[in-house]
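Handoff note, outgoing to incoming analyst
You'll be picking up this chain. Sequence as last confirmed:
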Amino acid sequence: MIFLRPCKRKECEGKQCRHKHFHYRFRINGVRYRGAIPAARTKWDAEQAVAKIKRDVFEGKYGTPASGKGNLGEFIEKEYLPHAKVNKRSFKNDNSRSKVVIANFGNKSFREITAEMIEKFNAIWLGQLQGGELPEARQM
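Most recent structure output, in case you need it:
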């Protein structure tokens, strides 16, 4: 869906201004994509830009930066734990807790982890689902 959104600048409130630009909004496989197309001057230009964005989504090029190809386990081990070791006093707590998180979510990318998975992990970890037993790690 392509639509023209009016200007929301404070200096243009209540005035007729020419700061309008096209926006797009669509879903593919339950994933929402939306954004602005400020370079499009006509609706045809906006439709061509959206067609290119959809093609990039189908080819797997859209929204995937080069550094975002890792998973949660790699991020924790390569980025978070070294930072925590240098900047936090509670590094030992982070280190021990991260082992459980890596065991459950380590092979998943950030997009694959849902709120339901986190809630299930919290419930299992707190022993609410298993009648008080505390499991070390579970595959979800």
